[in-house]
């Protein structure tokens, strides 16, 4: 989820003393895990506004201009190849040594001669600063600017954008308003909770709605707006959508995208002239299909919800609209839809069709039921302001679900579960700032807390404790060690697991690098190492790993070859992992395996080739680490068929208890 700081300020009076770094830290502590911050003001700090005093021809190049430029560092001579370099231009200056992000390199720290004329810096294009795609010429700012003013401010890109991870239980964070509410509760500023003003309907709603499956669609809101003039959306809206990576299309579509990210309320608008008659909400029928707005045709079945208009599928419910009923510049009458869909059905439908849209992402997590009417009213007002027209009355078919049930909350639970001893007033203030209603009589041992409609994840008193502690600050919790249990503690690992770890560590100490490879391998390779190819996979992820491995050696040998191909022929590899002999429960075993490769690298002390005794020593060391009785072991032959006869052996306790095999590979293998 991305949002810009200016967008956040629509819903939050940010504390002016709060820096961007402090805001990011506050978000992290509140549970909003920040992944990336794009701060153009910081990224473009080295770039400033400059004024071309004079631009003349280059004495030795027709396409170059020699510019005398007023910069923050004084007057500079800059050679420029842009066709629009001219006297009087206000552009963006990069001093010597500056890294140019769009070019991927830094300017030299000393002046550079270009066709015999020294150049002291660079005049940049928007593409070179990565703030646009235009590369036909250098930046030409409108009007007059102060020399040395920040380039980000002059280009109107000083707004920072924050990208953070949304946990599945917080769909309200998929809207900027929900983010602002939590940040206000955490002390980032004052939350602006302005009521939504309904738009009075100028005429009765002429289109009816029929819901065939109320479990799938509990409520469906619809409104007709006549006489709109569709076109580009305002610059402020386009700038916000571009900042979070969305491409502006037209005013009607941009309004739906804006509402999706501003209020976590997906909407759908479609051309009323193309969607004739009443609407029906039902499950799709086998054989139905739809050409969607992403220009893909989807084959549908009973697991997919659809909206039907004039007997045909108009859109995929909660996923995406249809191409035929999409809005264009010729649209004059538009239907605006806001609905509630069953989250599980939407999630399954998106997975089945391979379609993950912004709407599907939100509906699959659950949207605020009260946003049906609010979303319609806000979208209506935006459309009327941008496109004109008049709106019908709002039609709500179905029933808006009730908010989550009240929670009986003993405030003593905070002390019991977290160790925090907070005053009553502080707890009430935190809960109310998050939108909860609190009935907390003084001295009462149990409070009644009403849960807001957008917090369906709150189900009990422990959830409320978590909310209080989260906002108060996890970093303020005392570090208290867990009590040590009395008596003798059982070992942390089972003996067999301890043997595995001892063997792994010992082989690593002997210079073998650990590898982690697939538990699957190619059937032909399995047959080379004792497998019969019967443990075939029903649905392999690749044709090259289509059965369960009988040994780790095939993968280790291939990895050894790849190392040799890249100049590391002496790399020794090992793996401790499972092998699969049969499909029975006891057919899986854990083994330690290693590979050393003979190296042709010469050494001043003489030849240092690996031989069979080195790998025998590895096997003995691993067995000793695992607890085998080394003194009682016998070395016998022959080993398995993949070993070289006469250069391999078996370590065993009698003829029936084989503990290890070692040797040189058979030439045929």
Please characterize this protein's 3D structure.
The mean pLDDT is 92. This protein is α+β, with helices and mostly antiparallel strands and 669 residues long. A hairpin with a 2-residue loop joins β21 and β22 (312-316). The protein has 17 helices and 37 strands.
Q: Keywords, please?
A:
five-stranded antiparallel sheet, 669 residues, alpha+beta, 25% strand, 37 strands, five-stranded mixed sheet
Please identify the structural class as seen in this structure: alpha+beta
Indicate the proportion of strand residues: 25-35%
The low-confidence parts are: none
Number of strands: 37
Order of strands side by side in the largest beta sheet?
Answer: 6-5-4-7-12
Largest sheet: 5 strands, antiparallel
Total helices: the number is: 17
Mean pLDDT rating: 92
Task: Please provide a brief summary of the model.
The chain is an alpha+beta fold and 669 residues long. The chain is 25% helix and 25% strand.
List the helices and strands and how they pair.
Elements: E1 2-4, H1 5-8, E2 12-14, H2 20-29, E3 33-38, H3 40-43, E4 48-58, E5 61-71, E6 74-80, E7 90-94, E8 99-100, E9 105-106, E10 112-114, E11 117-119, E12 122-123, H4 151-155, E13 161-165, H5 176-185, E14 189-191, E15 209-211, E16 219-226, H6 235-243, H7 251-263, E17 268-271, E18 279-283, E19 289-291, E20 297-299, E21 305-309, E22 312-316, E23 320-321, E24 334-340, H8 343-353, H9 358-363, H10 371-387, E25 390-391, E26 395-398, E27 407-409, H11 412-418, H12 424-433, E28 437-439, E29 447-450, H13 461-472, H14 495-509, E30 513-514, E31 520-521, H15 523-528, E32 547-548, H16 553-565, E33 573-580, E34 588-595, H17 612-626, E35 634-636, E36 643-652, E37 658-665
Parallel strand pairs: 15-18, 30-33
Antiparallel strand pairs: 1-13, 2-14, 3-13, 4-5, 4-7, 5-6, 7-12, 8-9, 10-11, 16-24, 16-25, 16-26, 17-24, 18-21, 19-20, 21-22, 22-23, 27-29, 28-29, 31-32, 33-34, 35-36, 36-37
């Amino acid at each position: 989820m991305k949002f810009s700081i200016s967008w956040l300020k629509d819903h939050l009076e940010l504390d002016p003393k709060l820096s961007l770094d402090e805001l990011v830290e506050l978000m992290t502590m509140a549970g909003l895990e920040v992944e990336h911050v794009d701060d153009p003001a910081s990224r473009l700090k080295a770039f400033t506004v400059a004024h071309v005093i004079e631009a003349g021809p280059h004495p030795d190049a027709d396409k170059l201009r020699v510019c005398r430029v007023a910069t923050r560092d004084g007057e500079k001579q800059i050679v420029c190849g842009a066709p629009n370099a001219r006297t009087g231009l206000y552009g963006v200056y990069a001093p010597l040594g500056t890294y140019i992000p769009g070019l991927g390199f830094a300017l030299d720290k000393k002046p550079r001669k270009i066709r015999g004329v020294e150049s002291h810096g660079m005049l940049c294009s928007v593409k070179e600063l990565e703030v646009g795609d235009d590369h036909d010429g250098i930046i030409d700012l409108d009007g007059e600017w102060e020399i040395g003013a920040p380039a980000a401010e002059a280009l109107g890109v000083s707004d920072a954008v924050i990208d953070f991870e949304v946990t599945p239980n917080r769909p309200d964070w998929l809207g900027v308003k929900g983010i602002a509410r939590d940040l206000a509760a955490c002390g980032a500023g004052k939350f602006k909770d302005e009521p939504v003003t309904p738009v009075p309907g100028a005429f009765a709603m002429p289109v009816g709605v029929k819901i065939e499956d109320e479990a799938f669609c509990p409520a469906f809101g619809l409104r007709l707006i006549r006489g709109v003039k569709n076109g580009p959306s305002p610059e402020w809206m386009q700038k916000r959508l571009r900042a979070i990576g969305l491409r502006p299309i037209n005013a009607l579509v941009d309004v739906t995208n804006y509402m999706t990210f501003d209020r976590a309320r997906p909407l759908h608008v479609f051309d009323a002239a193309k969607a004739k008659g009443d609407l029906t909400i039902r499950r799709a029928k086998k054989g139905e299909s739809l050409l969607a707005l992403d220009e893909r045709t989807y084959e549908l079945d009973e697991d997919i919800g659809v909206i039907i208009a004039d007997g045909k599928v108009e859109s995929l419910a909660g996923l995406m609209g249809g191409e035929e009923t999409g809005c264009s510049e010729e649209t004059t009458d538009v239907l605006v839809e806001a609905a509630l869909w069953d989250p599980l059905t939407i999630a399954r439908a998106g997975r089945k069709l391979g379609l993950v849209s912004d709407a599907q992402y939100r509906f699959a997590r659950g949207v605020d039921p009260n946003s049906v009417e609010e979303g319609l009213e806000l979208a209506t007002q935006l459309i009327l302001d941008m496109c004109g027209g008049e709106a019908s009355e709002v039609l709500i078919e179905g029933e808006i679900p009730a908010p989550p049930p009240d929670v009986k909350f003993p405030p003593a639970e905070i002390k019991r579960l977290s160790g925090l001893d907070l005053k009553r007033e502080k707890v009430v203030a935190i809960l109310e700032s998050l939108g909860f209603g609190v009935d907390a009589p003084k001295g009462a041992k149990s409070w009644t807390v009403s849960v807001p409609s957008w917090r369906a994840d709150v189900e009990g008193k422990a959830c409320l404790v978590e909310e209080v502690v989260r906002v108060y600050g996890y970093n303020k919790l005392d570090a208290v060690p867990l009590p040590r249990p009395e008596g003798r503690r059982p070992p942390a690992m089972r003996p067999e697991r301890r043997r595995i770890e001892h063997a792994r560590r010992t082989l690593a100490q002997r210079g073998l690098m650990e590898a982690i490879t697939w538990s699957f391998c190619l059937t032909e390779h399995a047959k080379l190492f004792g497998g019969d190819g019967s443990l075939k996979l029903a649905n392999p992820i690749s044709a090259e790993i289509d059965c369960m491995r009988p040994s780790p050696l095939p993968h280790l040998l291939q990895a050894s070859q790849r190392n040799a191909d890249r100049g590391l022929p002496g790399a020794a590899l090992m793996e401790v992992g499972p092998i699969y002999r049969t499909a029975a429960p006891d057919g899986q075993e854990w083994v330690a395996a290693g590979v050393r490769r003979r190296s042709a690298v010469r050494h001043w002390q003489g030849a240092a080739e690996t031989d069979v005794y080195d790998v025998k020593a590895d096997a003995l060391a691993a067995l000793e680490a695992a607890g085998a009785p080394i003194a009682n072991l016998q070395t016998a032959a022959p080993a398995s068929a993949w070993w070289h006869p006469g250069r391999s052996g078996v370590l065993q306790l009698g003829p029936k208890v084989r503990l290890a095999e070692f040797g040189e590979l058979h030439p045929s293998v």
